[in-house]
Amino acid sequence: MALPDTEHLLLRRDGGVLHITLNRPAARNAMSLTMVSELQRSFDAVADDPTLRAVVLRGAGGHFCAGGDIKDMATARAQAAAGDADAYLRFNRQFGAMLEQANALPAVLICVLEGAVLGGGFGLACIADVALAADDARFGLPETSLGILPAQIAPFVVQRVGLTQARRLALTGARFDGRKAAHWGLVHEVATAAELDTLLTETLDALRHCAPAANRATKALLLKTLVQPLDQVLDQAAADFAAAVTGDEGAEGTLAFIQKRAPRWAEEI
């Protein structure tokens, strides 16, 4: 697997884990179009890699992501003023396409959230399979206070916290910390900033014990529940179950259980 060259991301592969760090600390890792494009290319590079078990996404300099880059908005404004009627549409929709891509990653997506988790950063938090937050992280949807919409992240916020809570957060621009984010179901675990790395290590250790192919199939099945009729989901689930039971992982899992040992995949992350 060849990782792309990047300007605004730090990429590091460690066995079955790809660490992606948003790296614009002077801008609190505001999401530029360059960063969006680099994330898309990074996700493309690993989407079909069966040896990749997790992607860890975090930010440099004590912040996750403070939202969209105002400079890119100014560029889109200039393009629109020059007669490009679709400039704002392309600018906004590219971020949503990246969220769709990240949401559908076969590997487990773990977001480590600290400092600013605003706007687009909030959207990324909403598509994490596992979201770990610092207790003093600051979450919010400030878009309407700026006269714009949380357009591309809105569906993912609704899926994460429900329509009732999403309406309140989006329509008031409320700010809240990591503990409230956990209470509302936006994140799964909360720790002090100093304890986040330990929490990440524990999460990756738990992931070691889950079979890679079974995890990928389970994630795909869970996502299908949002878009397919129940009978189709259950038919596919039965087929996937049969394939798993008769496959290499099913045989190894059964044998490991009988022999009272860890399955071989537990040593491969």
UniProtKB/TrEMBL annotation:
Which InterPro entries does this entry report, sorted A to Z?
ClpP/crotonase-like_dom_sf, Enoyl-CoA_hydra/iso, Enoyl-CoA_hydra_C, Enoyl-CoA_Hydratase/Isomerase
Homology family: Belongs to the enoyl-CoA hydratase/isomerase family.
| Name this polypeptide is given | Enoyl-CoA hydratase/isomerase family protein
Provenance organism: Isoalcanivorax beigongshangi
